[in-house]
Amino acid sequence: METIKSFNSPLASIQVRPIQRSEEARYQALMAAHHYLGAVPKIGETLWYVATWQDQWVALISLSGAAWKCAVRDRWIGWDFRSQYGRLRLIANNSRFLILPDWHRPNVGSRVLSLVERRIVSDWQARFGHPLFLLETFVDPQRFYGGVYRAANWMELGLTQGYRRTSNGYSATPTASKRVFVRPLIRAPQAHLTHPDFAHLQLTGDPNRMLNAEEMRALPLCFSEIKDPRRPQGRRHRLSVVLGIAAGATLCGMSGYKAMADWAQGLGQPARERFGCRRENKQYVVPSEFVIRDCLVRVEPDTLDRALRLWSESWGETADSALAMDGKTMKNAIDANGEQTHILSVVV
To answer: Residue 214 phi/psi, 5° resolution?
Structure first.
């Protein structure tokens, strides 16, 4: 291929840009064909990039939500489970990185990572409305050394414990561990990621939730009394299911119809069953972006609000039970038994 032979090393000519919606099918097809893990669904906060040289696709990269649990990462940051929850949005995971065939040339990979790093903060802020402080990735040591990430100045923190995500949570026994690499996008990311003030972190509202099985089953029930404003012809999904999934996606941090639909597409079969999804060809199917939008614009906001309040009254208080405690001994305060008085304060 003559055009590739002329690529002598003009790395400065490589450019990185987000994938356009019309290009997503091509992106997924190339990932499925050439990446050993295959294509990756676009769930939640996700950005796909393509690196180009003279309008030719050189590499593909995907950045999405951070791993829920990673012991070496959390120790490096200084998190425990409670303090990290709600701040995971400040980390993006490089879930796929593919240099396309014929483009495996010196320094191409590190150049692409560098270009992504330069624009990801502004792109993420513009798309999802909050900043990024850190990038992470996991490298299979049985396949790769991680040289591309090392060349791009990523830091290796250690190995994962080897557990992998499954449809029911995590595997019961560890399998192959992965190397954990991180790349700070700001100075002193640990101090920012552990900061107690959400306003300082440019995060608004309450921390996002992770729904358990009972909460998934309860959400559609809250909407079961709402009259369906759609015509009976052509209905494939019950209104309560559509509204329950939309509410669940919102509780988990999704914003916008497409993000809700992407979140729904990422649900496993057990989760779809809990939401009461329609079963077709022995598989539970979720409503599309069009169906979610169509239902939400037709239902009165006050009706939705009343239904959600019912759910919140039953489940809202179970989100967290963290307590902040402080105690003091009062100087020169002696009780009837001659002992000093102690004051204990507890903030829920």
So the answer is: -65, -40
d(C-alpha 291, C-alpha 323), whole Å: 41
Helix (H) or strand (E) holding 159: strand 155-159
CA dihedral 319, 277, 269, 289 (to 10 degrees): -80
Q: Which residues pair with 280 in a beta bridge?
A: 283
109, 151 contact by CB (below 8 A)? yes
How far is the C-alpha of 291 from the C-alpha of 97, rounded, in Å? 33
CA distances from 78 to 75, 191, 194 (A): 5, 9, 7
Alpha helix (H) residue ranges in 129-238: 147-151, 189-193, 213-222
Whole-Å CA distances, 345 to 289, 317, 327: 48, 21, 6
pLDDT digit string (tens) for 53-85?
A: 988 999 999 999 898 778 899 999 998 766 676
